[in-house]
Design goal:
Elements: H1 3-11, H2 18-29, H3 35-48, H4 52-64, E1 79-83, H5 91-101, E2 106-110, H6 120-124, H7 136-145, E3 148-152, H8 159-169, H9 177-190, E4 195-202, H10 211-227, E5 231-238, E6 246-247, H11 249-260, H12 267-284, H13 288-300, H14 303-314, E7 327-332, E8 337-342, H15 344-356, E9 370-373, E10 380-381, E11 386-392, E12 407-409
Parallel strand pairs: 1-4, 2-3, 4-5
Antiparallel strand pairs: 6-9, 7-11, 8-10, 8-12, 9-11
Helix pairs in contact: 1-3, 2-4, 4-9, 5-11, 5-12, 5-14, 9-10, 12-13
Bound molecules: uracil.
């Protein structure tokens, strides 16, 4: 069947056979199918969905497009964590530092920003010198010495997902349950961890907008995990407001350091502790109560913070050279009231527009730009108060939107 026939079949809502999926996706991988045809197929998948059979086949195709990491030389239980994506979501860096400080091995393969959501790799690359491309030997060595390592999706692990992910990012084909489930699970299986904790984000700033979608993707990802003999735990968490106080790559690294130094207490901190406790429970085989109390101790004692510094140092990063833009614009409130809502999606898009994400595959990110939220849900605001500060590329940046309208006041 030609690629056009395959696209038409999916457009008409019919199930693609294993053979159709291989023709399309392996053909794209070999460079025989152009971006425009694959984009069209992805859009048809977004519109019409996929059956479980198609989802399993596509996950298999992604996994088999590369190698699978052999973590049998890592001493200890390996627990991976992944988020379906949100705005200001820097939980990976927090929870991996905590779990590793408590003896869990965290082999983490992370992605770049997707759509309006940020990615851990882009955040880490804002640290000058940080290497996201460790060799397999270096990765395993670091897991045995430091306890956690974070690498970018390598050229060898699920490489086809990487190509498709980059295409989805710029073709409006990100928000699809089957595409998100296959993308995440193929990477998780290829990365080799025995146990996986998935943070399924739902809300207006997330890729999944409704509770039903979050429940459905959790069920699918657990099912894919079972097929590959992996223990998968999911937590559905809320993403209606930006997570924490910063959005933007270097700004978020600074925020992670504050949280690990026990200087913050907000929803992001509570969420990170809950996810870390789940990882510690799975990794050490202890009760959730015991895991939670060890997580608290890891933060208050500074062990988690030390672990983060150790990881950055092991991967060549120099935090003393981390820079945020020196050009800032304060956004002044033109309303008075009590904040009861914040549009996470709009804040994510704003950060992207400032240069913190990509609009085309070739775009270069500016690590120093972003948003620091000064007022959040629950705060009282007077006209003239600073709602947030934008970190912008250059002086003279003109704010063209009414950013006060991103907030809902009572
Ligand atoms: N994270 C991924 O790795 N893939 C997606 O498709 C969405 C979020």
């Amino acid at each position: 069947m030609s690629m056009v026939d395959i696209i038409n079949k999916k457009r008409l809502g019919r199930e693609l056979s294993d053979h159709d999926l291989e023709e399309a996706f392996l053909g794209y991988d070999r460079g025989e199918i152009p971006d425009y045809q694959m984009s069209s197929l992805l859009m048809a998948i977004c519109m019409n969905g996929m059956t479980e059979e198609e989802i399993f086949t596509l996950t298999d195709i992604f996994i088999n497009s590369g190698d699978q990491l052999d973590l049998s030389h890592v001493h200890g239980v390996t627990v991976d964590k992944h988020s379906t994506g949100g705005v200001g979501d820097k939980t990976t860096l927090i929870v991996a530092s905590i779990a590793a400080s408590l003896g869990v091995k965290v082999p983490k393969m992370s992605g770049r920003g997707l759509g309006h959501t940020g990615g851990t790799i882009d955040k880490l690359e804002s640290i000058p010198g940080f290497r996201i491309d460790l060799s397999e030997e270096e990765f395993i060595h670091q897991l045995n010495t430091v306890g956690f390592a974070i690498i970018s999706q390598t050229a060898h692990l699920a490489p086809l997902d990487k190509k498709i992910y980059a295409l989805r990012d710029v073709t409006g084909t990100v928000e699809s349950i089957p595409l998100i489930a296959t993308s995440i699970m193929s990477k998780k299986i290829a990365a080799g961890a025995e146990k996986i904790v998935l943070d399924v984000k739902v809300g207006n700033g997330a890729l999944l907008k409704t509770q039903e979608e979050a429940i459905e993707i959790s069920r699918l990802m657990k099912k894919i995990g079972e097929k590959y003999n992996r223990e998968v735990e999911t937590m559905i968490t809320y993403m209606d407001i930006p997570l924490g106080t910063c959005i933007g790559n270097a700004l978020e690294i600074l925020e992670v350091m504050k949280i690990l130094s026990n200087e913050e207490n907000n929803y992001l901190v509570a969420l990170s502790k809950a996810l870390a406790a789940k990882m510690v429970q799975l990794g050490l085989g202890i009760s959730i109560e015991e895991a939670s109390s060890r997580v608290e101790e890891s933060i208050t004692s500074g062990r988690a913070y030390q672990k983060f510094l150790e990881m950055v140092d092991a991967q060549g990063g120099d935090l003393s050279k981390l820079r945020v833009s020196e050009h800032t614009v304060d956004i002044i409130s033109n309303k008075k009231g009590h904040i009861i809502g914040m549009d996470a999606y709009k804040f994510g898009k704003l950060s992207l527009d400032l240069g913190g994400g990509r609009k085309t595959k070739e775009d270069k990110i500016d690590p120093g730009v972003g948003i620091m939220l000064k007022k959040k849900i629950g705060d009282d605001v007077e006209i003239g108060d600073v709602l947030c500060t934008l970190y912008v590329k250059e002086e003279g940046y003109k704010v063209e939107e009414d950013i006060t309208s991103y907030y809902t006041f009572q």
